[in-house]
Amino acid sequence: MSFISPKILLSRLGLRPRKAWGQHFLLYPHQARRIAAALEAAPQDLVVEAGPGLGALTVFLAQDAGKVVALERDPALCRYLQEELFPQGSTVEVRCQDVMDFSFLDLSREEDGPLLAAGNLPYQITSPLLFKLVREKAALKRAVFMVQREVGERLTAPPGTKDYGVLSVLIQYHFALTRLFSLGPANFFPAPQVDSVVLRLVPAMFEVTAQDETLFSRVVKAAFSQRRKTLNNTLAAQAAAFGRSQEELRAILKDLGIDPRRRGETLSVVEFVGLSNRILRGEPGDSKSPALPSTENPR
User: Fold this and answer.
1) What global pTM score does this model have?
2) Architecture of the 6-203 domain
3) What would the pLDDT profile of 58-82 be if each residue is shown by its tens digit?
4) Architecture of 213-281 per CATH?
5) What is the SS3 assignment for 176-226?
6) Other CB atoms within 10 A of residue 128 CB
């Protein structure tokens, strides 16, 4: 299958990149090949691709995997992919669907096995999609995503840095994360104003285990809810939401050797896990259980 310049192809289709959807198309097939190779798909694998666009990456994913489910929200691009690039009978199933409305868990159950995932993620959906994958990680075997450099820095950030936040903690707990390579703006049409980075995520067991992952997530989000405030003003102030009194929560922090005057951004992933486990157990002889989990997923 010959590669057509995205600029020429879009012109032929009478389309323009949609800035509101963060559409930036890969210019060079060898870069798409690098991304596909990093996923290490095999003939027995099913790959879910988020936002195939003009299909530059999809073509190479299809060469390696047994099947590709390509999720494209743009109706015009979806028609092109279905009618011209991957007609009926292809190993690529193009779905006109937003990846945020897609259930990785349902497809994994249908296939009776974990899935691979890949994609060049627009900035505006990157964080929501990663939070979604945290919740649905049981469906995944491995994922390779291209994201803006800023997001890559947030995901890999250590405690005490400006980029360290909720997403950093949750991704580092749930996945083994590897930064593979970077791509500059000249690799895309239209050229973005930032560099991009390709990351591999593999679901993994962290060095310590959160006994209640929902509670762990809630504790992390509470600690970062007012970033510049201390744990005493964030966690302790929300103690009732965890089924604890403020005095109990301060006692838990003291017992763990965590100064309540510290900010959430200074706690390591290990400390967050230890804190959530201790909140779950409570004080000796305390039979209270944490409050029901919130359904909120703040960025």
Assistant:
1) 0.89
2) 3-Layer(aba) Sandwich (3.40)
3) 999 999 999 999 999 999 999 999 9
4) Orthogonal Bundle (1.10)
5) EEEEEEEECHHHEECCCCCCEEEEEEEECCCCCCCCCHHHHHHHHHHHCCC
6) 13
